[in-house]
Amino acid sequence: MYRFLDRPLDQLDEHLHFLVSAMRHWTMVTRSGRCACRALAPAFAWRGVSAALPDFAAAMGTFDREGKRWLRFGAATARAVSDDEAVLLALVDSAMRGERDAARRIAATLVTEPALARTVTAIEWVALRFLQAPLAQRDNAPRQA
């Protein structure tokens, strides 16, 4: 968590920077009573990670409904990672590294026990989709002769 805390967004790798923006946008859209999936779909499609959106939305919904505490996100224009954003980035980063025990420990600080397994699974799927995206882009790129 501490390696992300107060870091400027432009110093994060592109996946994590995108996820912070998506977290902030999900929160803003949901609080206004709109469908977050519909609002986020174009951005996820543009990044080539549309398959991650359902799991991302499920995890965010679980944090919102079954969280142990309210999570606070930075404003859409904030330039640095907030405390709770740093915790979620550490969770995603653990999943991206295949560190399931670490991901589970972090998630356990955020959600109730009944929601723990499905939250970790959702985050692992988000991580997998983001890790697969560069491969899909590479595989779909025009071949050079």
Walk me through this protein's architecture.
The protein has 145 residues and is mainly α. It has one domain (9-135). 66% of the residues lie in helices and 0% in strands. It has helices spanning 14-31, 36-47, 53-66, 83-96, 100-108, 113-140. α1 (14-31) packs across α4. It is globular. The model has no long low-confidence stretch (mean pLDDT 91).
Query: Termini, distance in Å?
Result: 45 Å
Instruction: Give the number of DSSP strands.
Output: 0
Please describe the biggest sheet, giving its number of strands, its sense, and whether it closes into a barrel.
none
Helix percent reads 55-70%
Overall 3D shape: globular
Total count of domains: 1
Look at the structure and give the mean pLDDT.
91
| Strand residue content | under 5%
Q: Provide a count of the helices.
A: 6
Compute the gyration radius: what is it? Answer: 15 Å
Low-confidence stretches: none
Given the helix and strand composition, which structural class is it? mainly alpha
Query: From N to C, what is the helix and strand string?
Result: HHHHHH
